[in-house]
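Hey, quick one: can you model this chain's 3D structure?
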Amino acid sequence: VLSFFRELGAREFVATSTGNSSTSLAYGVQQVPDMQAHLFCGREFASRNAYCEHPRIHLHVVDGDAVESEATARTFAQENGLLFDGGFFNVARREGLKLAYLEAFDQLAPDEPDVVIQAVSSGMGLYGGYRGMREYQQMGRLRKTPRFVCAQQETCAPMVQAWTEGSPTIQPQHIIRNPSGLAEAILRGDPTQTYPYMHEIVRDTQGCFAAVNQDEMQRARQLLYDMEGVDGCYSSATALAAAIALRQQGWIQADALVVVNLTGGNRR
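Sure thing. Here's the predicted structure for all 268 residues.
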């Protein structure tokens, strides 16, 4: 993202996040002497911005959720003539996020995944993974099309609700006002702009959307730590819990090779 912004001639930009990507951007900006960042987040996510204070990084805390934070950040960028990061609609973000999947595909070779699972907010990471998968197929480095699964927590699952009702778009009844849940990084109650892309990916790969409850998330998180020593965040636990639930339901077969993208660690 930072390299792309430099190519565009931008030295000051605005971004919004629930903590993971803003923390990464903050560390990156510290390594680029002539770059400055304005990072926006909702008040409940302020503590998730886990980087050291720096004079070229400005954190703006908004009274509201992720959607309201994004709207405030967009307005700030317009009023100050600054480049807005754009999140899902930033091509550099999407292209960068596919790299984790390409590494996973390479490490699995010559085996290939049957199922790919990630917890989603906007779905940007899974979108990147889908693009990477199609590009590897064009290069002859993958033959299979794995089924893509979008995982959400039951307390904030607008995409799951829309999918369950057979809707290719988010309708008013699917939007979650003031969302809450253990997985703070994916508390996006209104994914109106991005859900159609995720719907198409899931439909194209014969995948599904899955929701898990908080007990399932807590058990999955503990299992991840006990078996692998990985102290994942609840977003990571959401993805793993979805894999477990889908296996128990028979949607995932016993001999299936499953890639679960653990998208964050516990910083508390």
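One thing worth noting: Residues 66-80 form the longest helix (15 residues).
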